[in-house]
Amino acid sequence: GALGPTSGASCRLLPLLLGLDAGSDLGRGFVPASEQRPLQATACECLRELESCKPGLLGGSLGLLRGLLGQEGPVQPLSLLLALALRNTLVLQSRVGAGLGGLLTDKVPPTGGGPWDWTLVEEGDGRLQPQAPSWPAAEEGEGERSLTAREHSPEEARELRAAVIQLLDTSYLLTPVAQAQLLWLLGWALRGLQGQPPALFKPQLVRLLGTAQLTLLHAVLALKAAFGEALFTAQDEALLLRRLTLAAQHPALPPPTHLFYLHCLLSFPENWPLGPEGEEAAPLLLGPQLCRGLLPSLLHDPMALLARLHLLCLLCAEDEEEEKGQLPSPRHYLEELLAGLRQRAALDEGPRALATVCFQASYLVTRCLAGQPTVLTPLIHGLAQLYRVRPMLASHFVDFLDQVDSELREPLKVVLRQEVVSRPGRDEALCWHLKMLAKVADGDAQSATLNFLQAAAAHCTNWDLQQGLLRVCRALLRAGVRGGLVDLLQVLARQLEDPDGRDHARLYYILLAHLAGPKLGVALGPSLAPPALASSLVAENQGFVAALMVQEAPALVRLSVGSHGVKGPLPVLKLQPEALEPIYSLELRFRVEGQLYAPLEAVHVPCLCPGRPARPLLLPLQPRCPAPARLDVHALYTTSTGLTCHAHLPPLFVNFADLFLPFPKPPGGAGLGFFEELWDSCLPEGAESRVWCPLGPQGLEGLVSHHLEPFVVVAQPPTSYYVAIHLPPNSKLLLRLEAALADGVPVALRTDDWAVLPLAGDYLRGLAAAL
Amino acid sequence: MAQRAVWLISHEPGTPLCGTVRFSRRYPTVEKRARVFNGASYVPIPEDGPFLKALLFELRLLDDDKDFVESRDSCSRINKTSIYGLLIGGEELWPVVAFLKNDIIYACVPLVEQTLSPRPPLISVSGVSQGFEFLFGIQDFLYSGQKNDSELNTKLSQLPDLLLQACPFGTLLDANLKNSLDNTNFASVTQPQKQPAWKTGTYKGKPQVSISITEKVKSMQYDKQGIADTWQVVGTVTCKCDLEGIMPNVTISLNLPTNGSPLQDILVHPCVTSLDSAILTSSSIDAMDDSAFSGPYKFPLTPPLESFNLCYYTSQVPVPPILGFYQLKEEEVQLRITINLKLHESVKNNFEFCEAHIPFYNRGPITHLEYKTSFGQLEVFREKSLLIWIIGQKFPKSMEISLSGTVTFGAKSHEKQPFDPICIGETAYLKGHPGHYTATWTTECAMSSEKLHFRILDYTLTGCYADQHSVQVFASGKPKISAYRKLISSDYYIWNSKAPAPVTYGSLLL
Question: Where would you say this protein principally sits, based on its record (chain B) (predicted)?
């Protein structure tokens, strides 16, 4: 279209903007002199946006922009435009390993003011790409690479430095937010650039450190992250930290700023970080003395409280030993604070937010101070007390138990359970108690729990309460409680008013009576299928269906037919099973297609594990006629999660040769006479044929030894072999292989079964290839 | 560094949506970049409706916090900054910078110039601080001198034009929106070379400089063993320099009398060109000693046209201006209260107003009151369960006044009575407002406390002042210099000494 990248309008746009920007005649003709400057500024904004969206677009105009900045152009828009173009050019050129060339000094854009070819930028490396992080710590490797790629000639380096100094020197003319952008861009551009000492930034720093501007301090932090020790000595770092600490609590700044500074403190780009990267930690230089004003109190709003609490936790974690003599100890203060939060959460009319903060704080503490019983023990007791006072916070407790580590969860469960069962309930808190108990009930303290439930049952008059009660029963069932629970369920199945409740109780009772422990656990586990109906019974049933019925599943077991052995009176198929996941009680069922063989027995394997070699399975075949067949295979097994699955496996093929058996040796010994006798017996009912059996490089001897060895009756190696094969149920196949030529051997064959003839022919013709 | 979108939302509790989007703007070119930068993790900017709903939910500003909602109330969802991830249509929009101030929610979404999974550290996103500054700028613009809703509406209607200048294509160029407003008006003036971007024109007229120092004093008084009372002065110095020339150089100095309290934690305006290292390092974090820098505090600067906050400081004065003592005891059906207030002799005894607010939280309305006061009058707000002790312009000669009495409360009716999470039982406070040497005192009762409100004119607690010699102008003409001072109370709490009170870590350091 008219605005497509190759259209005439687009081609003229950039030169037009550059012309306006340069305040050339083009622009002058447009507007009165008084509007020249705003027009220039606007052209700059447009160019900056174009450069942002097409990085590298203005790479050729760097020199021009520099010149304008030096003369009369509006400072702020030009500075930002030049810094952006410079940053993009340096980044792009490091990507292709090129230098700046004369870009910074050429005053005329490469197109010489003619129409601009937009497609050039597309083809070059100028497409917009996700940027490497502007924050270097995240990708050290990248930094290394760009360090080598971005070497400039002394000439280029000097020009670059001059350009940067030019930009920094006039930076005080920019608004604070624009100054911050300039610093980000330049810091980013110069990072890892040889011959560009970051000390260029130094004259700006003191001025910036004194301000309260969020953007400026943030930009200083970016420089700190980019250049580290090269720009900030240890003393500078300490000063920066102090200013940050101060800003994070300065009463004159708004709360969102405090919070952001606090975040910056905990993510402070230290010169020599000790802890793992990417984790919030108090910087080394931020000692207890500095933190003093940053500690939480109950008067803070929730976000400030949590942010400061985090810092307090880090302090507590740090000076675990040292603080003994220190008064007041941070840990003691932490305890008091948590107690205060719990007291607030316990208020009857308190909004939910108060409770939420209390639990968030507790969670934060457990995260930061895991493994410190001096903190966790009072926390557990405090929470138990909170529950005693305000059981309606049960949902928060359940959530809390879900989130914390077992180190806290298990002891907390115990005290909460005691808290619930020790006061048999008939009050309005019963529904909360039941909710709580469904979470914390397990195999311990069974009798107390059951007593509580028995007492509670009488008060469970509505559907909600009954469901709550049954949920606890369910939890107990899962935990493997049996004894007293049977009685309770029986009582419930009779007594409950609500039919749904009665059905449920009965269902649980039946499950308890009929299922073994592990199976019960699985049956009551989280439902695999999403409930289709709102009814709890239906929802639950879907869970049972999943657990108690056989599931159709993709095959987790593979079968392959192993080498063929000949022993005994029947052909036996040797199967090699292989499991993809641990499976138990595997039953393999086979069905012969076309009823060529008698029905096959199922094969049982107690357990199969991937990686552990399994014994081969022997499958005896009882052919009704001597023909190859296809076996349909089904597997039934239990998974490690306790589900019973059924899978259809790929069919197995029984080949003609798999049915071969040797003739039982006659009492007189097998010899030529025995063979002749068999040979003669085939006719006249049977059939006779001659087949050409091609030989491979191994020759006749190899062929026989590989395929027919067990059946050879008379052998005169290497020229003549007489072979007698018994084909169950009662057919025979006799072969004479004599007078072999180089590429084949004529085979005379006889059989007493016409139907075998084509199979035998195919078999012999395929032998050479099968080797 | 750019913003993808910005919203102003008025918070209207009690309405069905609990809020209305008053202003919103999206930046399509930035959005296009976001799509490329964020790659597979890109989440588009939602429509106003879903955004409003998700934001109010996240900020807990919807009315329904009756039930536990895991996605909001779970203990592991901890937010420690004003930057949020909003769940909208199953995807999470991050980072959303947002805060509530004066019933308006300010929100914007900065561009992140890389992939969002894994989430880059917040500190590495340059757009975040720009976003904050943007929102603060809008907030300043909307509330500077704004008095009523129609003025707010006028200003909101000016926003689109202003943002075109202050934030073209989503890149913030000037957080001071008033500059852009002036810029629009000044457009026809020929601007000279090297005009600073933060100065939109030049002043013509008589040179004059005005400096006003406002100190706020905060205090927490417990009157308890093992807990130290705390107080702090926070100063703001506001200047307006009407001087001719493009970039006049000015040095403003603040002075302290010999017994003045050193200024600390000094934060300066960005127009200050250089800072003495003594100013930069004097900080309340360090233990105080006699060697602390006590001025004069010199600030060389190039002033902007408009009035600006030259610097903020804090200071630790040796004594609180008013020392309070508050006792509250529950006696069967009534509360017995005793309050003593003592003005320190060094403080100017000439208030613009001074009153003590004594609130009673978590109780029913006041049904009966008997009291005796040595000075001033007591106003009773029965329904609000609040007593206001109006002390007036002067403390009596003795500098000490007292109030005692008993209060009886009616049954607590739910909704109406003030609820406070801290003032439980006997925990109560009194809050005072020392103001322009007229002080207001409020006594509020958190764990029972009173709160003082007061104001004293032409006075600072630190002694900090500016005078005719404080301003050096390196330009033609001697400017007329005017200086103002005042002291205001803010968060001046006196806690019931007979009950537990919330303490800060600082109060435990004796």
Answer: cytoplasm
Instruction: Please report, for chain B, the start and end positions of each structural domain, with discontinuous segments joined by +.
Output: 1-182, 207-317+456-490, 320-448
CATH of B320-448, one of 2.160.10.10, 3.40.50.1360, 3.40.50.1240, 2.60.40.1170: 2.60.40.1170
- Closest to B267 (Cβ–Cβ): which among A211, A222, A255? A211
CB contact under 8 A, A181 and B126: yes
Q: Is A671 on the interface with B (CB under 8 A)?
A: no
Looking at beta carbons, which pairs linking B19-25 to residues 24 or more positions away fall under 8 Å? B19/B52, B19/B56, B19/B61, B19/B105, B20/B52, B21/B48, B21/B51, B21/B52, B22/B104, B22/B156, B23/B156, B23/B159, B24/B48, B25/B160, B25/B163
The answer to whether A329 faces chain B, any CB pair under 8 Å, is no
Which among B130, B143, B141, B151 is positioned nearest to B177, based on CA atoms?
B141
Chain B residues with CB under 8 Å of A177 CB are: 130, 133-134, 172-175
Banded pLDDT at A542 (limits 50, 70, 90)? low
- Peptide bond preceding A729: is omega within 30 degrees of 0, i.e. cis? yes
Q: Is the CB of residue B381 less than 8 Å from the CB of residue B367?
A: no
Q: Does domain B207-317+456-490 have CATH number 3.90.1170.50?
A: no
d(CA A747, CA A694): 10
ipTM: 0.91
The CATH code that applies to domain B1-182 is 3.30.450.60
pLDDT tens column, B295-339 = 789 999 999 888 999 999 999 899 999 999 898 888 878 889 999
> Are A349 and B362 in contact (CB < 8 Å)?
yes
- Nearest-neighbour CA in chain A from B377: distance (Å): 30
| Same topology between domain B207-317+456-490 and domain B320-448 | yes
Interface test with B, best of A91, A177, A316 (most B CBs within 10 A): A177
Cross-chain Cβ contact B75/A359 below 8 Å: yes
Q: Does B314 touch chain A (CB under 8 A)?
A: yes
Of residues B197, B265, B267, nearest to A76 (C-beta): B197
Select the residue of B126, B128, B197 nearest A174 (Cβ to Cβ). Answer: B197
**Residue reference for tokens 């003691």:** A332
Local structure of A222: helix, strand or coil: helix
CB contacts, 8 Å: A257 with chain B:
132
Contact B37 A128 (CB under 8 A): yes
Task: Print pLDDT tens along chain B (510 aa).
Answer: 899 999 999 999 888 888 999 999 999 999 999 998 888 899 999 999 999 999 999 998 887 777 888 888 899 989 899 999 999 988 999 999 999 998 899 999 999 988 888 888 888 899 999 999 999 999 999 887 767 888 888 889 989 988 988 899 999 998 888 877 766 555 444 455 577 888 877 888 889 999 999 999 999 998 888 888 999 999 999 999 998 888 888 999 999 998 889 999 999 999 998 888 888 888 887 766 667 788 789 999 999 888 999 999 999 899 999 999 898 888 878 889 999 999 999 899 999 999 999 988 877 888 999 999 999 999 998 888 889 999 999 999 999 999 999 999 888 765 555 666 666 666 766 665 433 322 222 223 334 678 889 999 999 999 999 988 889 888 767 889 999 999 999 889 998 888 878 888 877 765
A504 contacts chain B (CB < 8 A): no
Q: B-contacting residues of A 144-203, CB under 8 Å?
A: 170, 172-181, 184
For residue range B445-474, list pLDDT tens digits in order. Answer: 334 678 889 999 999 999 999 988 889 888
User: Roughly what angle, to the nearest 10 degrees, separates helices A499-514 and A536-548?
Assistant: 20
**pTM reported for the whole predicted model:** 0.78
Chain A residue with minimum CA distance to B38:
A130
Query: What pLDDT, on the 0 to 100 scale, is given for residue B29?
Result: 92
Do residue A278 and residue B193 have CB atoms under 8 angstroms apart?
A: no
Question: Which long-range CB contacts under 8 A does A737-741 form with residues at least 24 apart?
Answer: A737/A693, A737/A700, A737/A704, A740/A695, A740/A699, A740/A700, A741/A695
